[in-house]
Design goal:
With 389 residues, the chain is of the alpha+beta class. Helices cover 43% and strands 15% of the residues.
Length: 389
């Protein structure tokens, strides 16, 4: 078994660049647009993030060599199955970058990298201990310090006895070197293709700006902290986007609620796929195989199952259903018996939307109420309660 992937956590300081994240995201989006126009290759879509050296620190960063040595992990055999993340926060918001390379070279003014280096580093003459090349950036939390605290708790600081990361006194010797127990992957190409129609996550987030307030409202006033924190970050975004659109048009009976249903469907589709994969990840591939469209496949491999196929795998495929009941130590019976019916109902409504048939306000309301638990038990809460090995 491979070692847990190591990641990094750093803080950007508004005192040296108030728009550091905005500038970085804007540069990455500009490069994505050039790629969409076939002016650059996909491999040239990246941006550099520098760990700015504090003017108050005279000594070298104590763990710099350990961080630079992590660059070798990016080209090791484990990099195929693991990702390296750079978590970036100002304590109010949290982003995660997909690390492609780490270097201690001085990139400011270096030829060839100007297109990938936000201008404020040079304009403010900032010195950096090291640089992180990021292929993509995802927004995790927006303007919600409590949400940042809870999300960072999922990371363990390797230089502090593997204790959970805390912003209260624990943000010393940055960047922190961390691991996470759940092995979360944020940038899988197959998942991105299914959920964003092949767009970069930075594009996806830019198109769904303004959902931070809705995410916070859902966590605080609708489903609660425990449910919200247990859901994948993309699941939260889909739910918040769907809920915001539903609230905006809930009094408009003539509105086509297809986008609301599609986003709610994507949320449970993704969470269901993640639970299936985590539950069966340590099972022998031969034992977790199933017949899908006449072909024997590894159910917990890299494939992202569509909502209808997912329902059949969980509820009707005998060996998979049995394994899930054995391995899901909490709420497994609900997942294997009740969840497939939820998926099938959503699949029917999403198919209507896919065939350009309008979805009524009433059908959208039923889906929304069932998922969020308005007047009934919440599907999202049931999914959050599931315990994987």
């Amino acid at each position: 078994m491979s070692k847990p992937a190591r990641h990094l956590v750093s803080v950007w300081n508004p005192t040296y660049a108030a728009d550091a994240m905005e500038s970085t995201v804007a540069m990455l989006l500009d490069l994505v647009r050039l790629h969409r126009k076939d002016e650059i290759d996909e491999e040239d879509v990246y941006v550099w993030w520098g760990k700015v050296k504090s003017s108050n620190r005279q000594q070298p960063m104590p763990h710099l060599q350990e961080i630079l040595a992590m660059d070798a992990e990016l080209s090791s055999g484990d990099s195929v199955d693991q990702e390296m993340h750079l978590y970036l926060t100002d304590y109010r918001s949290l982003y995660v970058g997909h690390v492609a390379r780490i270097t201690g070279d001085d990139l400011v003014g270096e030829g060839g990298e100007e297109q990938h280096l936000p201008a404020f580093y040079g304009l403010m003459r900032l010195n950096c201990d090291c640089w992180f090349q990021l292929f993509d950036i995802r927004r995790v939390i927006t303007d919600d310090t409590i949400g940042v605290v809870e999300e960072l708790k999922k990371l363990r600081n390797t230089r502090y006895k593997d204790r959970p990361v805390s912003i209260y006194g624990g943000m010393v010797e940055l960047p922190l070197i961390v691991t996470r127990d759940d092995g979360a992957r944020y940038f899988e190409a197959g998942v991105r293709e299914k959920l964003t129609d092949g767009r970069f996550w930075v594009e996806f987030d830019a198109e769904r700006s303004g959902v931070g307030e809705m995410e916070r409202d859902l966590r605080e006033n609708v489903v609660g902290d425990a449910t919200w924190d247990a859901l994948d970050l993309a699941v939260r975004t889909f739910v918040a986007t769907a809920e915001a659109l539903f609230r905006l048009h809930r009094k408009d009976a003539a509105f086509d609620f297809s986008p609301v249903v599609v986003d709610f469907a994507k949320s449970v589709e993704l969470q269901g796929n993640l639970i299936l994969r985590r539950a069966l990840s340590s099972v022998r591939p031969a034992d977790r195989s199933a017949n899908v469209d006449g072909e024997s496949v590894d159910v917990a491999g890299r494939d992202f199952w569509s909502i209808g196929t997912l329902a059949r795998l969980i509820g009707q495929t005998e060996n998979i259903n049995r394994l899930l009941k054995q391995r899901l130590t909490r709420n497994g019976e609900w997942f294997t018996s009740s969840f497939p019916a939820v998926l099938n109902e959503l699949a029917g409504l999403r198919n209507e939307a896919a065939h350009h048939r309008a979805v009524s306000r009433e059908n959208a309301r039923k889906v929304r109420d069932k998922l969020l638990g308005i007047g009934t038990s919440a599907v999202l809460t049931e999914l959050a309660r599931i315990k994987t090995p």
